[in-house]
Specification:
The chain is mainly alpha-helical. It has one domain (2-93). The chain contains four helices and no strands. Helix 3 (31-56) runs antiparallel to helix 4 (64-93). It is elongated and about 50 Å long.
Length: 100
């Protein structure tokens, strides 16, 4: 149980340093804001991959805590998809071709 709580704490603290809200607050035509959002999305994807990797090491039984981790990882995946759409809209507004 301690290991699971420690893992949860580590995951929560890993998201503390994300600055994607600051990047979203910039004007859509601001190229530095767009670059910041792209950087944030890239960092979030790396953290999500770490979450999913760590989840694989959690006990194989379907515990409420493991299920909560799965739900949170899915929620972050939805958030990343939303941010990808915003980036595409921002690039389209600037007349730029989205890069992948």
């Amino acid at each position: 149980m301690f290991r699971k709580m420690f893992l949860l704490l580590v995951l929560l603290l890993s998201f503390e340093n994300l600055t994607f809200l600051r990047a979203q607050a910039t004007k859509p035509s601001d190229d530095s804001g767009l670059q910041a959002m792209k950087s944030d999305v890239q960092r979030m994807r790396a953290l999500l991959n770490q979450m999913r990797t760590n989840l694989a090491f959690v006990d194989t039984t379907q515990s409420p805590l493991k299920h909560q981790f799965e739900i949170e990882a899915d929620m972050w995946q939805v958030m990343l998809a939303q941010m990808d759409r915003r980036i595409a809209a921002m690039e389209a507004g600037q007349g730029r071709v989205p890069q992948r």
